[in-house]
Write a structure and sequence with these properties.
143 residues; mainly alpha; 6 helices; 0% strand; globular
């Protein structure tokens, strides 16, 4: 009976993982992160590389989350992973904001004629400072 429960748990976990990963990749596809990134950086010939990097990052992240590896052997790798994750989430957030036209609507409502660069930088820096405080200052989120 216990073996049956374990097999059922594995089946449910695997099916849920496939469902969630499909939804995440569908969101990335609908937002057009990869084509937009290639267009903005003039690197359309690397679209397959972008797609493979996103898929490899998803597989690596899921595997790392599943097995909880120790980073004592590769502590230097942690900042690299953090920067890469930050770049990915930044691109995803900006693509979502662009699709929803959040920034142009905000600029129109606040009547910003100039300084759009400063508005976007303020949003990005605020997000970065908040994340750094959350992760680096123990107990900050409990305040």
């Amino acid at each position: 009976m216990t073996t049956l429960k374990h097999m059922l748990s594995v089946l449910i976990g695997f099916g849920s993982g496939i469902l969630i990963s499909g939804a995440v990749f569908a969101l990335i596809t609908i937002l057009g992160v990869v084509p937009r990134l290639a267009q903005k950086t003039s690197t359309k010939r690397y679209i397959k590389t972008y797609e493979m990097a996103i898929a490899a990052g998803g597989i690596f992240g899921a595997t790392a989350g599943l097995f909880s590896p120790s980073l004592t052997w590769g502590f230097w790798l942690l900042p690299v992973i953090g920067i890469m994750a930050g770049i990915f989430y930044g691109c995803l957030a900006m693509s979502l904001a662009e699709v929803l036209d959040v920034i142009p609507i905000l600029a129109r409502r606040v009547r910003i004629q100039r300084g759009m660069f400063f508005l976007i930088m303020a949003l990005a820096l605020g997000k970065m400072i908040g994340a750094l405080l959350y992760f680096l200052v123990p107990g900050f989120y409990e305040l």
